Amino acid sequence: MALLQLQSVRLGFGGPPVLEEINFQIEPGERVCLVGRNGEGKSSLMQVLSGELSPDGGTINRQQGLRTALLPQGVPAAATGTVFENVAAGLGETVTLLAEYHQVGLQLSRRPEPALLDRLATLQHELETAGGWHLQQQVETVLSRLELPADAAFSELSGGFKRRVLLGRALVAEPDLL
């Protein structure tokens, strides 16, 4: 069964349609390369595939439970935080707990205070309840494989490292379709 199937998909932005009568499917394990001139609808098609854009017509069938991730074309100008926080953002809501645990751990290593130790214990319990340790391991694995500095400020990275961080954010969710 196809991971994703488009049937007669149409998409326009007020002028001539960018996508018209698109029929397309992606099978498990398949690798697809999308080639075309600027303005031909490649990015729009990718946004439709990921679910970020809804088509004007046609149908999209997704395999039940399909996880998708999209690597953005450009680096967000307003992105802040550490590399760890930016990669972990690909995990969804549990990321808030995970990022705070990471930050409190850093603060505690710099200045041991009872209040920080108490907060770390509370966060640890909340992460255990939410299954967050598995998620932290996923983030650390991605950071290691992409050779990313976890505590570096995202805003201070080179363009290439920023793209690598964005790739890490997409990969950490272990998508079926990237």
Short précis:
The chain is α+β, with helices and mostly antiparallel strands and 178 residues long. Helices cover 43% and strands 12% of the residues. The relative contact order is 0.17.
What does this structure look like?
- A hairpin with a 7-residue loop joins β1 and β2 (19-26).
- The chain has helices at 42-50, 83-88, 95-110, 114-130, 132-145, 159-172; strands at 4-11, 19-26, 57-62.
- It is elongated.
- It has six helices and three strands; from the N terminus they run ββαβααααα.
- α3 packs antiparallel against α4 (114-130) and α5 packs antiparallel against α6.
- It has 178 residues and is α+β, with helices and mostly antiparallel strands.
- The mean pLDDT is 89.
- The chain has a three-stranded antiparallel β-sheet, covered by helices on one side.
Layout of helices and strands, plus pairs?
Elements (H helix, E strand, L loop, with lengths): L3 E8 L7 E8 L15 H9 L6 E6 L20 H6 L6 H16 L3 H17 L1 H14 L13 H14 L6
Antiparallel strand pairs: 1-2, 1-3
| Alpha carbon gap, first and last residue | 18 Å
Record field, number of beta strands = 3
What gyration radius follows from the Cα positions, in whole Å?
Answer: 20 Å
Strand order, biggest sheet?
Answer: 2-1-3
Largest sheet: 3 strands, antiparallel
Helix content: 40-55%
- Stretches where pLDDT falls below 50 for ≥5 residues? none
General shape: elongated
N-to-C series of helices and strands: EEHEHHHHH
- Assign the structural class, choosing from mainly alpha, mainly beta, alpha/beta, alpha+beta, or little secondary structure: alpha+beta
Number of helices, counting only DSSP H or I runs of 4 residues or more: 6
Strand content: 5-15%
The overall pLDDT, averaged over residues, is: 89
Q: What oligomeric assembly is this protein in? A: single chain
